[in-house]
Amino acid sequence: MENLRLLREIALRKAADRIGYDNQAERRTAEKMVSTRFLVCIGPSPSSARCIRWAARAAEAFHAQWSALYVETPDSEYFTKEQQSVLRTNMDLAAKLGAEIVTISGTDVVISTAEYARLSGITNIVVGKSRRHSLLQKLFQEDFEDRLIGLLPSIEVHIVPDLPTRHAHSVRSRRRQWERLRITPADTLKALAILLVATLLSILLRKLNLGDQNIIMVYILSVLVISRATQGYLYGVVSSVLSVLLFNFLFVEPLYTFTALQPGYTVTFLIMLFVALITSALTIRIKTEARLAVQKERRTEV
């Protein structure tokens, strides 16, 4: 009888321990579900709908909150009507399935997504697998999901296979490249007028014997003004090259030729060109970020 009583006590103690362990496991699971938050990255691709549905099912299984994020970049201006319609459809689908729709502005989708995920306490991100259509992109450009994983090592990234959208991608890419290289009469006149003013001012500086370094600074300033006053990247690049050629042609001995007697001027030309190109690129980037900030402010007011 004594042995039976001991066995009964041991069995009860084991059962109590098991129940306690199960309760702790349930509490840990519940706490994890409460802290879990999903984020799905959406865009104008029809494949975004698959990511949205996957995130919705996962959020429902974990009883977790989830958001759908769209990052508006300067390239958004070049979306076709079809792509704009697909984007609105994807947002409507996410809202219908219970997601919080979030739209932010940025120049880099990956960096903007990573910053939002950190600030919002996101634990899981759902993205579509990007497809490279260019050999140069495959060789020199890192995939979206790889960059995101590198920036967010502590957040789980779930990759949903994307659908091929070669035609839409190529149309958008060609349109974006054309817009960046578009030539307009108004911008052409602006660029020529600014270069003319810079040249006249440089001639005045030469007559005052103020040195070639001041002439170089005038041309670099003209490139900055042209990049600020015109649209796209073309005018900034062309004006950078023209400023070097004008300086060489008008102010370097022998005059009115594209040759320089002093070997050191070759280095001067290269440095001047690099500085002008960098100045142009930074000016265009600042202008783009300012435009995105204005768009974000308008969207906030609405």
From TrEMBL:
Gene3D superfamilies to which the protein is assigned, alphabetical: Backbone structure of the membrane domain of e. Coli histidine kinase receptor kdpd (1.20.120.620), HUPs (3.40.50.620)
Enzyme Commission number(s) from the entry: 2.7.13.3
Q: How does it sit in the membrane?
A: Multi-pass membrane protein
Give the subcellular location. Membrane
- Transmembrane ranges, per UniProt, are 183-204, 233-252, 264-286
> Which UniProt keywords are present, listed alphabetically?
ATP-binding, Kinase, Membrane, Nucleotide-binding, Phosphoprotein, Transferase, Transmembrane, Transmembrane helix, Two-component regulatory system
Gene of this entry:
kdpD_30
Which Gene Ontology MF annotations are present? ATP binding; phosphorelay sensor kinase activity
Q: Where is the UspA domain?
A: 37-139
The identity of this protein, by name, is: Sensor protein KdpD
All copies of domain Sensor protein KdpD transmembrane, residue ranges = 189-295
Q: Where does the UniProt entry say this protein principally localizes?
A: membrane
Give the record's GO CC terms.
plasma membrane
